[in-house]
# Entry
Amino acid sequence: MSAIAVIDFETSGLLPEAGGRATEVAIVLVEQGRVIDRFASLMNAGVWIPPFITELTGISNEMVRAAPAAAQVMAQAAQFVGDRPLVAHNASFDRKFWQSELARVGLVAAQPFACTVLLSRRLYPDAPNHKLGTLAEFHALPRNGRAHRALSDAEVTAELLLRIQRDLRQRHGVDAPDHDFLQALQQCSKATLPRFWQRQAGATATATATA
# Structure
């Protein structure tokens, strides 16, 4: 399977349209069941970080003042990702900042996103909830570093993605749980999910019979 880029942002606020800016980004590349590369950087977007954000993330105004300019970091991040598809935990949040920050430097954010929150809801309905920390404990995923720092969260999300792909192969007979398959799965509702698995089982049986 082709490489997938797992991304996580830390930000000064919840919404770009409300003035929120990225303060840190991390990207972890996953291919053939393992992590193959990483990129991470703080960034200085010239915004003030509220105290409650510093308390949550550990990222202070002093830290970002000494960081590279946001435009420089985002240009590097875009080059690192290339045309690879993206995955994030709660992807609607990270997609907004990816698009907003790249637009500021005149770059198009054309990469499709898949969301490990949605995928977890489809595959692990017995999980206590689908927060990243809860899922890390639920699946006994390795974790290094502090929660709500971009690289630590991106690495845990990458481990969750690898677990999802492994379970799709072993439990559901999906030969190649690539990004297109993940997007199709996450779009299923609770009502349509059984039909989705029936179609998958039929496709697998047909492929086996014609092999």
Notes: The chain has nine helices and five strands. The CA atoms of residues 18 and 66 lie 24 Å apart.
